[in-house]
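PT: before anyone asks, these are the final sequences, not the draft ones from last week. 326 residues across everything. Please model them as a single complex and drop the result in this thread when it's through.
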Amino acid sequence: MWLTPDQQQVWRAYLRVSESLPAQLNRELQTESGLSAAEYAVLVQLSEADGGRQRPFQLGEALQWEQSRLSHQLTRMERRGLVCRENCPSEDGRGAYVTLTAAGRTAIESAAPAHAAAVLDLVFNHLTEEELTTFGRVCEKILTNLDHPATAPAATAAAPPCP
Amino acid sequence: MWLTPDQQQVWRAYLRVSESLPAQLNRELQTESGLSAAEYAVLVQLSEADGGRQRPFQLGEALQWEQSRLSHQLTRMERRGLVCRENCPSEDGRGAYVTLTAAGRTAIESAAPAHAAAVLDLVFNHLTEEELTTFGRVCEKILTNLDHPATAPAATAAAPPCP
DNA sequence: ACAACATACATGACGCGTCATCCATTCCCC
DNA sequence: GGGGAATGGATGACGCGTCATGTATGTTGT
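LR: through. Structure below.
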């Protein structure tokens, strides 16, 4: 029930990566393009959507973000003029649309190349083919474990009939 | 200057891991022990220190944290009674000491086993030997790239003589 | 000895993320 | 068709992290 020394070492290395790599990418994004990682992610999704326009809940699904997180983020991005909200899609009175503004499109298009270059530079340009595929497989395995919470100590049998 | 499809796929998987894995571990830590990941990290360091007592700047080095971040964190943890600050180490009038309280030691000791189990459960128990070592090597490589900013476009030659 | 600089730490402002909660609309089922 | 429940979304409170600054003590050069 404890990590082996090998696992400890890998885990510590991973923890450092998981702190430093996003931090570094954030800094680069911020200084080169004035965008945060969160803004970048939203802008990428919107720019890939038809008409640069999407329902918030679709955005949330694509980003795997909590709805509240997205809502806060959109509020800040609207304040910055990167997106704008339009209410009342005729089909669903509850809904809304988020649209990329011209400024938003400019921002993402000018930020993307440098960001991709940074990712290549910090990660992929230094990996062998085999390291790439194994790294990918490890990530997929972790995602699988996150989705199937084997952690459920006794509830794996069946969902209780909700009495 | 763009990611290949393979790289794209691995990158997206990594991004999800880097969001979901810490989030999941945080949740578990929070619900099982009432600790945040940041608190856990500080408590681990302090509990390994002699007398559960350390200078903030040493803590910062060990954790690789910015000084300001640590200071804020210690303020919150002091408010929660997990650590306490003592000023005036006789050797250095500027300094301070952070000490683990009894509550802090109890917290970390009761939290550690479940946390280790969660890490094993979510990550290491599902990796082959070869995946473990390759994963570790990839992390080390990324860390190396982060330390040696090959990104420095033209300033690698020499630091300017600071005119 | 004293000015200039460096070190150790604290703090306020702000962006970010989560949780809990709330409002409006739409769906469903009797 | 009327009363839940579910869905789409917003918001406030709070912990967290960074940047910019501030303050006090120590160090160094002249």
